[in-house]
């Protein structure tokens, strides 16, 4: 449990580094020409309450180690939840056994030594929360109470939960890299059910942060969950039509994630992206800047080095609408004849430059069309960019919300949607590592009745 | 939610008889013995988890081994092996659950977890618990280790044959990624109700994905299959190579696809994997936890009509060798064939022990968990609709204008509003009773409680999927199966771009 782990963080870090040393030494002993390893140890507390009563109290405690060995350009990987010396030996042996059967792959190698992180800056990611079970329960209950008391149409609840976690992750490789640091993450969420006539609707809200003091107050989380739920009551369907679509900030973040997966090095070298050969080309209108900030203090996705041990760097992905780079790790960089961009494991703290308009102004800009607040399903084709998702939201006329809508789909193609981005709002109002306001897309097909 | 695609007939591997205590013996050898845990230790642990104010308590031991291989660009470039082991300890008092787990299996670590878990209840004397006997009846698969069922070089060779088969189909095939995964999951459950049961669960899966390129247009096709069997499963009946051919066929079909239609229309769903409809539209909504809490649109509707006459949907965990099948669920309850909807009338929910006890019924053997580090909850196994009597061709011929959707990528549902989606990855327009051009993937959206009332024809061609489905609920993934015959739905919203 987090409270028990705060004092001995330094000692645990040292112990995990020893395990990495042991893994690398054992790999060498078993004949590997190179190796990389990571170990993690985490613990936490999750409590869930429902209708004012405790539902679950979970104490979590996870350990894991992973090792990849290289025999020249052949590699093998093994992992286990056991950190004992015997498990270290067995894991290396299992990885070596795998490497007997994998084939020569010229890109199977560690990152070059000069790219590896040598200093690990303190990104202020560790703020353990010494919260007792009873206190956690009380906070969750207060959050749910705020939701249940918000409106008489809130008739039921899926509950509120509070979770807190502390973890240490250490990684190293035989090119001399060794890094490790502790992190914490805390969150509070609430989901309630509203009813009007025979029809029920559910919605939720949440807050998450590295430090408990940065969490939104429980009361605000509960009220927001209730407000979102109530606003969905009385939803209708729409007739099939074409219209401009405003994506609420939290669903617009999904469009940013689609961009990130399309420019991921693996998608590019596998030719499974709709953005092949687009670096240096305009893919958005010229007002668009998209960037990552991996070193944000207390950032939820902050990291000083990537999954290969390579230093992470702030950078633009899109400048003035033009795609600047793919997101590469050591392997995909090699496959494409490029250098890694320090993105093994993904993008960290993704942002889009926000415009000047608030929610109301964005709705006025939308004029008459669809304000999408929820998307369902997996209808994004990464290879073609074809986009077809289930949706719910509000029908808007002349900038004014008219009524909630549901059981509709929106469809288009991501390439055209990106090019058709009209404006980005300044209405970023959701937690998480991705920051964006709402997105106004010029035209999409809405299917309904 | 269900991910990944692909139907066509699966032939369950023949199950051979074996002595069921094998599983328990294997569990003792692979879990208890290495940790130095004796039977008396188990009694003590369960006793310390249980007190006067605890209604139920259980301990779930797990030892899981996984091996995977990935071939890309004709090179077997990645392989990995992983071991996961641990124990989850649960104490339940009324609707309250205390839970702790440990990846260390030595007695002191487990005793500490037991103490944390039981703190949910007011303190009391330790209860005396005597662990009992296993009530397992099923022999749906052998307690084998699929990782050792084929030599490593033969696994590599199998993936290379899959790659070559895909590439020789058509010069437009550009990229091929093939992967092979074998898992042996050994679980053991002890509960204060006398349950002492173990299950050794093999699971194998082979996946192929290809990119075809023609005149600057690129499209993907994916296929695969799996079962609770050894890796010999993929060598039977040319199965592995047929997945390669199917992935190529899908990619080439998509190269010809035109924009999908938009709006409400008649939809004919193919047999097999399109049963993901049932999983999303009704399956999740009929899980016992949502109904106890009243958060499902189906809550309190037992005995009511929720589907057209002729529609019967079951959840059956007892099909030999299937991906969603289990000899027992993760609470030690034997799985069963549960009728959810019978001739259009809602008959029952899927239950685990907790929800069954709180709603005064019996567990249906649907208590499942992703691992020892997760709490069990009601989950589906293999969910399918029974066959009707229509010829599939007659069904298509009856449609003047509509969509024929045969492959899907997965779905999602909001169990409270009942709205669900599932995304077609292979579909054709139907015009005047005939299949027309293939159309691009599109999401279909509907309302769970009324979509099945619009089923107007049911095919005689029930098929189960190839064994690739994974269901996600509250962050926990478990393997599942789906199936159905060809179905005609009179009106469903299709999310294409062409009017
Ligand atoms: Zn599901």
TrEMBL record, chain A:
Residues 6-33 form a coiled coil. One of its GO terms (molecular function) is metallopeptidase activity. Signal peptide: none annotated. It comes from the Bacteria. SUPFAM superfamilies: Putative modulator of DNA gyrase, PmbA/TldD. Residues 35-99 form the Metalloprotease TldD/E N-terminal domain. Keywords: Coiled coil, Hydrolase, Metalloprotease, Protease. PANTHER family: METALLOPROTEASE PMBA. This is Metalloprotease PmbA. The lineage of its organism: Bacteria, Pseudomonadati, Pseudomonadota, Gammaproteobacteria, Chromatiales.
